[in-house]
Amino acid sequence: MELVLFRHNRSDGPVTFAEYCAAGGFDALKRTLRELSPLDVQQLVIDSGMRGRGGAGFPTGKKWSFVPRDLPGPRYLICNSDEMEPGTYKDRVLLEHNPWHLVEGITLAAYVLGVSHAFIFIRRGYETPAGNLRAALAEAEQAGLLGDNILGSGFSLKVDLHVSAGRYICGEETALMNALEGKRANPRAKPPFPAVRGLWGGPTVVNNVETLSNVPAIVRNGPEWFRGLAAIPEAAGTKLFCFSGHVRTTVCAELPLGMTVGEMIDGPAGGMRPGSRFKACIPGGASTPFLTAGHLDVPMDFDTVAKAGSRLGTGGVVVFDHRTCMVAATLNLVSFYARESCGWCTPCREGLPFVRHVLARIERGEGEPEDIDILREHVKFLSLSFCPLAPGAMGPVEGLLRLFEEEIRDHIVKKSCPFGSGRPGA
Ligand SMILES: Cc1cc2nc3c(=O)[nH]c(=O)nc-3n(C[C@H](O)[C@H](O)[C@H](O)COP(=O)(O)O)c2cc1C
Description:
single chain; 12% strand; alpha/beta; Rossmann fold; de novo design (two linked rop proteins); binds flavin mononucleotide; four-stranded parallel β-sheet; 42% helix; 9 strands; Ubiquitin-like (UB roll)
């Protein structure tokens, strides 16, 4: 199995500039500035089949192609390193081990987009990753790989690192732009889409850390090579998956896209904890509907996980064992979203605390049979909110209703939690 992003990781600190260069680092940038046009690089990324690793899986090269090339004024590139989704910690691990993929990737993407000022928006509290990035950006500039007139090519790029004020909504791309502009971090209406009117009104692309970090290897080794890294022909590349919950090993691993959920849990996650049997997992961060034991042979790729009724999301796999109360697990997830609602639109501000309230009373054994229909209505109703936060929060609720309705009814009939109010991770 060939690794791309974790290839040179070591346990005693981040990969150094010299080590990255010795392994072919910055070769892609040097070759690009010598012999490739922005559209050549964009085409390589389109041909590679690379899909965004920030959650939605949108094709990266296609996103870049939406930026109009003829509008006057500056354009911007933002790297989203906010990573506040529970169960997701891949960008942190990547930047703790190797900030260089991102430094080279952001430079290549900026070259494609005609951007001369880029931003890395990083989660508050990510002090080691931020420190690694600050040092790497300074070192790259000293080596002439960032800043004015990079390697004498005439292309210049300034990269600013911005630390988030610390709310989950700041990771939503339009709220992120408001935050960078110093405004309250509410999402903006779309259209206009950021590719046309984004940061300070200029065309803007927002990409995830892992997405941009893959670009140098795609340019260096070619799109065919990248596609061939996946375990199934429909997928492309590797992906960082993070495991937590009732598995033996809490770990972030780079794996071929298309490995099955079962293979991942038995492999890098070390299997279930002693005495635990697999009951369910969320495959891609807190906003993704549950998968159950019947899904253990589903290949973990964007389209196949969607066909199975969930989403690959960020690849944050949280595993629940046979003793987990799924009502309590869902309540735990919804409580996070209710707390993090920015309050801008009514369905989210009022709806999420109400769904939390209904789940809490079911879990306590005080639910009524009509609560199931109330939850179902809210899954529909909250999809009408202004941004994807509330629909995301309803992902686990939808999964709970579809896959564990009997378990909800059990709470209501027995007037207590059949699992003794077991919270996940306990
Ligand atoms: C509430 C909310 C929080 C988000 N947080 C993040 C985040 O922390 N990191 C991220 O890359 N994308 C996050 N996203 C998705 C971004 O809006 C955007 O789609 C993503 O950064 C695009 O990157 P990609 O095309 O490389 O996948 C979030 C979306 C929502 C609705």
